[in-house]
């Protein structure tokens, strides 16, 4: 779904599907404008999703994730399947990076976290 014009509303719909989906392994939302509301919804889905291993949220859109990217840290505390997370190119900032750092203290499955140019 890379560069498909997906915005916050569509990301929320995808998140609803992820809550019950039991087959999808990779979700690539690179270059979409999901914004803070979209990432909040994805974070909620990751708390219950038990199959997704790779989530690409590489930014460079007109509506980057921003400081609220820190909400992903809550999902990382409980998610036990995600191994690759790409948040590069978003405006997560210091607070978001600090929250993610705290989540990594308890997460035992994430092997790759890309924070390039945050």
Automatic annotation (TrEMBL):
Gene3D superfamilies: Ribonuclease Inhibitor. PANTHER family: F-BOX DOMAIN-CONTAINING PROTEIN-RELATED (PTHR24114:SF2), LEUCINE RICH REPEAT FAMILY PROTEIN (PTHR24114). This is Uncharacterized protein. Pfam families: LRR_6 (PF13516).
């Amino acid at each position: 779904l890379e560069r498909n014009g997906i915005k916050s509303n569509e990301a929320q719909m995808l998140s609803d599907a992820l809550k019950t989906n039991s087959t999808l392994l990779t979700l690539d939302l690179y270059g979409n404008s999901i914004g803070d509301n979209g990432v909040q919804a994805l974070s909620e889905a990751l708390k219950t999703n038990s199959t997704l291993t790779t989530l690409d949220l590489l930014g460079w859109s007109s509506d980057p994730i921003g400081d609220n990217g820190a909400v992903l840290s809550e999902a990382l505390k409980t998610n036990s399947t995600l191994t690759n997370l790409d948040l590069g190119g978003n405006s997560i900032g210091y607070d978001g990076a600090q929250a993610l750092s705290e989540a990594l203290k308890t997460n035992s499955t994430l092997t790759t976290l890309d924070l390039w140019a945050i």
